[in-house]
Protein 1
Amino acid sequence: MALPEVVEVEPAGAATGSVIWLHGLGADGHDFEPIVPELRLAGELDLRFVFPHAPIREVTINNGIAMRAWYDLFSLDRSGPQDEDGIRASSAQLLELVAREEARGIPVERIVLAGFSQGGAIALPRGAQDVAATGRPHGPVHVAAAGRHAAGGSRRQARQPVA
């Protein structure tokens, strides 16, 4: 599987950790790029920030308009169908990004998965599944998500760390 296009923000020194941060529906990898300097990590932590772009696909609930989306949304009904193929494909791309960071010398326990909305719906279960399957934790997985999504969330705001 091909890696998605990414926006990267490199630290001043050699990277000792990475944050892979997935955007929400309709946004792109540039969405959270401006937050990096606001975190004021320069001189504290040498983190590489990786902001992938979701693929452009038609989104059913948005009248089939093509936009960046980690998966299609067929319905807002909790018991409605989900785009399992799109969810699996995006999860696989996230794993490829993690593997790329490992190949670049970043230990998996120094890789943080983060996401907002649809991005959170991909990052949260992916991090939990990796820990369950491999016993190897990623760094903390922090997710900010709102609305119904693939992780089974409700319409309320959720912020949940996974160890």
Protein 2
Amino acid sequence: MISDYLSGAARLAAIASLGALAACSESALSQASEVSANDLAAKSKEQLVEHSIGDEYTPCEDCPIFVRVPDAPDSLRPIRYVSKYELTWNHFLAAYEDGSCELPKRWGWGGKDTPIVRSDPVFESLRLDWAITTMGPSDIICYQEWFKEKTGQFPMLPSSLEWEWFARAGVRDRKYPWGNEPDSTQEALDVSSIRDKLLPAQDLVDLPPRIRKIAVGAEVGLFEPNDWGLHDLLGNAKELTNEVITAQNVEQYNARLGRTLNVGGSRGRVTKGFVLSTQSERWKQGIGYSDYMIEMPTGFSTSVGVRFVLVEGQ
């Protein structure tokens, strides 16, 4: 040991040197940590412009897959990537199991369903590649913050016009993601038209009844994508936009949506697309159709999925 062969001033000098070395090491580690975080953010933003059109990009191990899309028109934000699928249960569980987000508090639409917790025997049945449609506003924000912490990028919800742009793959006035002719077999729109394809993939008989209540739509990616490689745009689940309807702008949205909206003292949210159904042919109205739902503290008034975009500079 140093004390065995150093004494007096020499020993004090050695101790001081060791202390200085430790302080330098701690400072170096702190600086390295800051550099690492900065490098992560810089590298992630760099990747936004490195990929070619059509390339797939996964920002982190448990993140959704994104597709590099052509540059957006000047009237829209500079979107560079769009999520290939709607956000799934498996994606959200990564943020939950990381300790960053809680499970959604809403587990059904009658208000009487028992929430599922980590110790629940049916928890493992949540590991689904199905759109998660029970998130509330705080759940979505929590996931966005987790994503940013992991990647240095903030995933954003599209506006209705941005959604229409990438749903049409940039083709002006295209009515459906696949073209202009209605065809209920192209996506998860009408159960009766796709039963043979849907049921084997869903395997509903193996899901606990409580999971079936929240497993809206079907497994993502069962159907062909649009021209830009994006799946389940018109069908499977409604998708949330960033547009908020309030008492101050409701008249504007009455005109845009072509009907009288009733938001009362709450906030409304514009949605795009349609949920897989057995009774509705509203999907035939196509990409241009917009709907709305009510935003409440605990969630939304009906099931809704999300599809994120990555915007340059965000």
